[in-house]
Backbone:
């Protein structure tokens, strides 16, 4: 609904009715028949009311319909009361509350807000594109780091395997030396057992007065074994 904007030129349409029946439209009035008084007041405690005569004359729009125009200074109130009088018509009282922003102002603000929102969305879209491209770079960096880590871990595992293989070879070679030593020890033990058995036989033969030259050739083997052990 159109309203009167404060401190702005405005036009007001009205009608006049017969002062006797207060219903019949007074259609024969002319500009000079009518006088318009204005009372205005602003918001605030103890605000003084102004009582002025409207400077512009009333004009006839059509039979029974009239128009009055208010200058900007006359409309510079928060509340306005118009009193329109004519000799043959009842007084017409019109109360008006002005607004700081009318429909046109609100529409302009909406258009401006829409434009600002559009600019913000465009800026956000650009920022999102930039962020996504940065995220793509970050993903690439993560992939590179992952590849480097995998390569490093594989290299470390290979080094550990090589070290383990070398250690196992050393251990096995040491175990081979130990086996050889055990074989020598076994031979020495066998030789010692043979020597001890031979000595026992010699003692027995001596007891029975058996000549030495009658001893078996095995004693020579025993002597060789002793030399080796010695």
Residues:
């Amino acid at each position: 609904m159109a309203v009167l904007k404060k401190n702005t030129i405005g036009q007001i349409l009205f009608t006049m009715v017969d002062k006797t029946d207060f219903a019949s439209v007074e259609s024969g009035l002319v500009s000079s028949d009518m006088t318009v008084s204005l009372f205005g007041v602003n918001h605030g405690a103890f605000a003084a009311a102004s009582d002025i005569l409207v400077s512009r004359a009333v004009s006839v729009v059509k039979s029974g319909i009239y128009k009055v125009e208010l200058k900007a200074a006359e409309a510079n109130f928060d509340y306005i009361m118009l009193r329109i009088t004519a000799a043959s018509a009842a007084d017409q009282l019109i109360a008006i509350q002005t607004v700081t922003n009318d429909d046109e102002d609100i529409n302009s603000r909406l258009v401006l807000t829409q434009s600002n929102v559009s600019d913000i969305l465009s800026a956000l879209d650009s920022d999102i594109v930039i962020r996504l491209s940065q995220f793509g770079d970050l993903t690439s960096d993560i992939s590179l780091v992952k590849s480097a880590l995998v390569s490093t871990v594989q290299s470390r595992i290979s080094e550990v395997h090589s070290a383990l293989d070398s250690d196992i070879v050393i251990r096995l070679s040491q175990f081979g030396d130990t086996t050889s030593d055990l074989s020598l020890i076994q031979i020495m033990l066998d030789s010692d057992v043979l020597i001890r058995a031979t000595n026992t036989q010699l003692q027995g033969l001596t007891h029975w007065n058996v000549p030495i030259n009658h001893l078996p050739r095995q004693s020579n083997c025993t002597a060789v074994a002793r030399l080796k052990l010695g």
